[in-house]
Design a protein that fits this description.
Length: 279
Amino acid sequence: MTIALFLILLIIGAVVGYYSGLIGTGGNIILIPVFDILFHYLKIPETEVVKFMIAHSFFITAFTGLSVSYKQFKVKNLHVKEVLYISVAGMITAFFLTEFIKNGNWYHKSDFDLVFFTLLLILAIRMLFFKQPPPPVSDNNLNKPYFPIIGIVAGLISSLSGLGGGIIVIPILTDILKTPLKKASSISIGVVAMLALPISISYLSIDARSAMNHVLPMQVGYISMFIAAPVLIGVFSTTGWGVRTAQKTDPNKLRLILGIVVIILCAKMVYGFIANSYT
């Protein structure tokens, strides 16, 4: 790894850490496009690149989510019961779907790009054009029987898109179950961390040298610690800052920030689709 690449990954990690603490979505929304560029630059075969992208994204997200959740605990905004109610079914779903993807070649890069782009577009429209309803007087009686269903859907989306469960958890909690955004974001990042664990374990539990032709430095399964380490250093340095900023920020501004980020990524993907159509 060159010094330049190390510094770039460090900066990316710092951005992801701050963003995750601020919004509560795990940072996959930034990591996936970055790893798309990086692994094509490193000449990862097209048949393996989706697995490398999702594996690295969720390995980092597992630590990011745990770090942000700890910061949420310190500011008394951690909701363990809600996280567990949603996560258990989602973890089982995510693990088995990941095994299905990992052990086959049916999920191509074009399929992944379509899923990723569709979810981004839906999220952007929701964040920019639909206002969050007024916060309820009391949110103590959340509809917990629906939580396993939310977890299953989040597990499916996580395994297929690499985006993490936050993209589905936050809208359902805020728009349908009328949960305040800051509480929903805290629950979301906890769920994202829990879902990332079985996905990471699945991608780690393979002998890289016997299963694939392209092996990166310090690679375990589909994950290179040379790539993950500088990103994680950056993440740990800024998650607390993001959480503290979120506690002081108007929820509508948080929605706007997320919407702008998603619009930029959508534009990048549209450009990629157009460029590929001419090659």
